[in-house]
Amino acid sequence: MPVIPSLNGHTPGGWTRYAKHFEEAGADAIELNVYFLAADPDDTSAAVEQRYVDLVAAVRREVKVPVAVKVSPYFSAMANMAARLARAGASGLVLFNRFVQPDIMLEELEVAPHLVLSTSDELRLALRWIAILQGRLDVSLAATGGAHTAEDVLKLLLAGADCVMLASSLLRKGPAHVSAVLRGVEAWMTSGSTSRSRS
């Protein structure tokens, strides 16, 4: 089973050397989980995009294993951004990062992060962009955010995803849910091929 560690950060710097440590420890690939909120009014969209590109290039210089980039959907020209990340050395794109949002706790009068697990209703964002990008870029496309059932996984695969990630559904149902999803995918594929052979 491939082991792919996730490396968090948003600027090139000394921490990018950890990618090399992951590779030396035996990682089969590395995921760059980029978390950056452009809250400074002086930050331009061009500068934010270049930060992502520079980050990918910096990590790419450190390692030989494939590098996937987990990005947010909030770029004004997502297809162009995806192409730039590919040119910078990304081997794959993970669509999309899902940020933890802050909330105000009224009783405590505090600001605290509020994690809400995804639902299948969120699937369509990744579904749309994977369908748009599939075949247009020389990168693998991974889907994350909203995949809970075999039907969800099948839709993403049909749209062009090379793999589908599960997180919220496993937190709710446990690791055994992977087997249930796989059985559902296999059952659909088997019934589909049977139907086609009869027609």
Features:
7 helices, TIM Barrel, 199 residues, six-stranded parallel beta sheet, two-stranded antiparallel sheet, alpha/beta, 8 strands
Describe the fold and architecture.
The model has no long low-confidence stretch (mean pLDDT 91). The chain has a single domain (6-198), classed as Aldolase class I (TIM Barrel), CATH 3.20.20. Helix 5 links the parallel strand 7 (140-143) and strand 8 (163-164). The chain contains seven helices and eight strands. It has 199 residues and is of the alpha/beta class. The chain has helices at 18-24, 45-62, 78-87, 123-133, 150-159, 168-173, 177-198; strands at residues 6-9, 30-34, 67-71, 92-95, 101-105, 110-114, 140-143, 163-164. The protein has a six-stranded parallel sheet with strand order 1-2-3-4-7-8. It has a two-stranded antiparallel sheet with strand order 5-6.
